[in-house]
Amino acid sequence: NIETLSNLFRSVLLLSPDDLLCCVYLCLNQLGPAYLGMELGVGETVLMKAVAQATGRQLDKIKAEAQEKGDLGLVAESSRSNQRMMFQPASLTAGGVFRKLKEIASMSGNSSSASLTACVFLIAGVLVVLMDRSLAGKLRIGLAEQSVLSALGQAVCLTPPGQGFPPAVIDEGKGMSAESRRAWIEEKSLILKQTYCLSLAPLHWLIPLKPMLAHPTKGVGEVMKKFDEAAFTCEYKYDGERAQIHILESGEVRIFSRNQEDNTSKYPDIVSRIPKVKKDSVVSCVLDSEAVAWDREKKQIQPFQVLTTRKRKEIAVMIQFYTIADFLEQSVRDSCEGLMVKTLDKDATYEIAKRSHNWLKLKKDYLEGVGDTVDLCVIGAYLGKGKRTGTYGGFLLACYDEDNEEFQSVCKIGTGFKDEDLEQHHNFLKEHILPKPRAYYRVDQSAEPDVWLDAVQVWEVKCADLSLSPVYKAAMGMVDPEKGISLRFPRFLRIRDDKKPEDATTGTQIADLYKKQQQIQNQGEKADQEDYY
Hints:
CATH architecture of the largest domain: 2-Layer Sandwich
Enzyme class: ligase
Catalytic activity: ATP + (deoxyribonucleotide)n-3'-hydroxyl + 5'-phospho-(deoxyribonucleotide)m = (deoxyribonucleotide)n+m + AMP + diphosphate
GO molecular function, one term: DNA binding
Region (Disordered): 500-533
Family: Belongs to the ATP-dependent DNA ligase family.
Largest sheet: 8 strands, mixed
């Protein structure tokens, strides 16, 4: 897949270099960086109407065929192929399609439907499938962002940009043996992933960075072993929402989420508080912080759910800028999740969009079993029985595989729910029922749910431990060639509204948690006693 995409980029670099950026965005099913807020996600009902109007078919027949095929893109393709046209439509270009998608993303009101119809009408052949899935925000080519970057790096190395036409160099690796060529490309790809060119991509105000993340640890002993004799600091790990605050010289304040979305309007109380806490000597800065809900009467932090569901002005938001055992216990008493442990001197740099071993998470949950909670997508539901009749009694959860852009089943969950939770989940999820599983769901037949669901919601889940499973597909082949990994005794904790489905725990992370768990178990009595206090 990477090689195929690389060859596409090489062709674009030679024949139409101005279209390279839009080709990259189209491959990622994006219209631009997240902070611009340009998303499609056009509803299926609107798309069905557009397909019906553009192809001259009746809406009820479009709906029936979509129910049967489970993919509106395939319906659009078959409808278009059976339609006779007086004139052959003009050929599509990558730039033209990209501009049309951006136009649709900016639409509102009655003009949207007409333009959608025109857009679908203009697309011929297999591009109907691609456009229809792009409009719905569900286009997947089996390559995640890092893979697309690898393909781009490979393309630039093999066919250097900026050449005249005909180009002097079409294939820089020509003449190399297959093994040498592969090693050379891997080396270049690794350099690309590790390199930040600050002169070409400096820090800009109002352009958010992807946050630095921490690695989970099992206990205090592991922290001491990791940092050895290096100086480090411990900070509270707050149970809130990541907030990257940009303070401009003009006094303007903007707040961005962990997904780089503009959340400024969500936190007017933080915006108004910044001038009061900023020293006069600070002209401008960027703060990586955590926003938490604060109970004014009890003088304590409230749970994350309160922050995400609050009504404006009901709850004040307090902003916190970023011996160990005692401090961990104190953090729990102060309604925090645990500690963030950060190195102070050695390798004490902020690494953008990276889960670094120079930051470690030490959570209260770590001392009770698995070293971290996991964030999983709901992709199916099982009908309730007994007192749960009329709602869903259990749910099928999946992790996300970045390389293949697929959701891999990891467990069935039925505990940790209050009655009101089940009712809330049922009311929300019934609006996202699918007639059949998505092509990018990896589920064993024996674990198939009663109802398939679109992967639109992320749940935080705690479990006793992880085990190899012949049924579940998470991290298949990473630990065992024929088995995946499953969560044992999973328990629902909360909905993660701040995370997109693609931000769910990955298969690689599931495999790492399993391996780390095995290492701890294999240590037996050699494990530090302080890890189990």
